[in-house]
Amino acid sequence: MPLSIILSRALSALLTLFGVMVVVFVLVRVVPGDPISMMIAPGATDADIAALRAHYGLDLPIWQQFWVWFKQVLQGNLGTSISMKQGVITIIAQRLPATLELAIFALIMAVIWGGFIALVSTAWRGTWVERAIDNFNGIMLAVPDFIWALTFVLVLGVLVPVLPISGRSDPSIDAGLATQFYILEGLARAKFAFVWDVLKHMLLPACALAFPLAAVIGRVLKNTMMDVMVQDYITLARIKGLSSIRILLQEALRNAAVPALALTGVQFTFLIGGTVITERIFSYPGIGNLAIDAVINRDLPLIQGLVLTFGIIFIIVNMAVDALTVWLNPRLRHA
Amino acid sequence: MIELSRRQLLQGGLAGMLLGQGLGITAAHAEGSTVTIAFNVNLPSWDPTTGLSAVNPTIQAIYRSVFDQFIGQKPNLEFQPGLLTEWGWSDDKKQVFMTVREGVKWHDGTPFTAEDVVWSLERAGKMDGGNPIAFIWSKIGNFKVDGNKITADVLQFEPTLFKWMSFLTGYVMPKAYFEKVGAEGFEAKPIGTGPYMVDQFERNAFVRLKANPDYWGGKPAFETVVFKFVPDATSRVAEIESGSSDVTVDVPFEEYDRLKSKDGLAGVVTPVSDIGMIFLNNDGPMLDKNVRMAAAMSIDKKAIVDKLLRGYATPISTLEAPEYAAFDPTIVVPYDPEKAAELLKASGFGPDNPVKFTIQTTRGLKPKDFEMVQAIVGMWRKVGIEAEIEVYEIAKHYELRAADKLAPAAFYNWGNAIGDPTTSTGFSMFGPSPHSVWNTDDLDGMIGPLWGEADEQKRIDGWKAVDKYIAENAYVIPLIQYQQPILFKKTIKVTPNVAGSPEPAQMSPA
Description:
The complex is a heterodimer. Chain A is mainly alpha-helical. Chain A is 76% helix and 0% strand. Chain B contains 16 helices and 19 strands. The chains are: A mainly alpha, B alpha+beta.
């Protein structure tokens, strides 16, 4: 990719982030709910309340508050959480790995599942198999992730209790890890029993997040593959005597993957957003669960930090998808 | 003989199926001396004396496991020696005296001293120190230590001082350790003198505590306690029903009734120091006493308790629950819809010409809060009150209340775990308090002198008179005292706590 395009994308990303900062900063201050009024002691005087407001810098005009925060952010400081009394960066750094591992696990599941149903329904197109998959896909797509989450809690957590329904690992296990990347570090340090426990805890929330995404991937990939299957080069491949499986995997899937990939990137950002409710239901200690507490407590520095983090994730994901799309599509590469 | 539960069997089966080997890790909960509690709130901070979490009554169950209070409190709200074995006022109420318990150790093994008590009180009393109850702690100073005896000057007489020593922010903190590690270091590795020590803390997931073998009150019954943070009520039901947790609290009453008779489970419901009420604002239609009285008398609280809350609440007529010091059973606001209609008629209102105002409420913050308000609005409609319901978030309630901009009626809940009338009627009804809604001189004139009343009997009688006056004028509409449902495995004995959530130190194997 030419340097000018990379610079242009980077500039665009920075502008987007700045926009996110402005919007979230203003939004959390204009919506009802003042953090100071939640902290007022019963015997507080007006002077005490004013002092408290000044302590958190909330006595300044909004634009001045933003300027103070903006300068802090440029220095790599997102401020201190009002409710948790720790640095916002420290708190997010502790919780972000949990969400990333969950989201990536869910993405892998969605891609595998979505790809599988697309391949099967393309291979058996026009038969009852395709219709059955389409119907099942419709259900997966229609049911939102939090309904899947509640369903899994009740079915696989209570009725047939095969999997844990809360937390990220068994509280009785001392893994002794140095980072919060439980799976990565666990694998690297050969703590397989612990990794297995983490995967068990992650499976239900990951399924809840993956199901709707898998349905989207499956549907788009299948439609694109159907288009591809009537192309001349597929007919040529058949004439050459290539097997159906080989045509499907090597010719059709390869060419149909690009639109599905772009869509997957967009949908992945929705999946990250979906972690907020899903993590809450499964008491999963990621930034989604943290975000709900931050909003309940009107913890302005933490809300701002979390939204900024989500914004950075979205931008990185979109840039990665753009790069992958270009890499996979020769026409774009040479454009 | 090895016994496998259905869960373990299925876990092992799934593990074997997926990995081809028995790597399933069985949970340690409910086994041996571990108790796992599916808790309804997260723990934001380990400092029990500053910030938002310090004034959250529910979280005190965790704080009280790790830290000790100056003065202890029994599950029925009675006071008992804590880290202070004796306390009191001088005869002229110009000094306080405290005797510090000897032989106590901090979790790091260092001895607990009177210096820790003095430092904790001085730190708590700094108005810019972040302690939300600093206005209480700042009323004593000039501490003097002589061995394990402490005396201090009374800067301003505060009759509830010692009561607060067993409640919100009334914890003794480790002076030397805190000064050494600082606030962030304390958050990372907190220590106290309490029955349990922090073993592992994963924010938003769980905290694992281990028994303090040197605890001055004797080693607790369970070796390990796990608080799982499960804020979603459905998930808490699933936790207890699936056997993943041994104890849980605050599940919906329907689920409580379903699960309490399930094999292996038991339940208890106990009244707690938390009430539901309707704030009235001295504005618009609420300036008419007939409207206020009619609004209060047309609410059938018993029907609300029986039909909406399945009997799990106690109707109240004042802001004092039966366990509180100033509770007066003779004050009763009757349910009398005919009288309510008469009062409204006298003011020119009726079903065909209703008085109109807005009532604000949260939805889902407390059990059946919105449904209760819906029912009340229905009862009001029959006598000639047309109220429009506005649902808001609790954060907006605080903002509006602080700015004195609440609607004419606003549903809210109010806790008071020290049981003193200052903390119930006082802070909610005294005009100058930032938490009051009704602000009129007549009431403030009655309440004002009671804040510094040194004669305890006279003080309590004074608050009872205030409560009677409030009821006669319907300056607020008290509705119910909440009851807390607790579900637990039959293998565990749980002692309910009127102050809030049950504490692990009050649990033992059955």
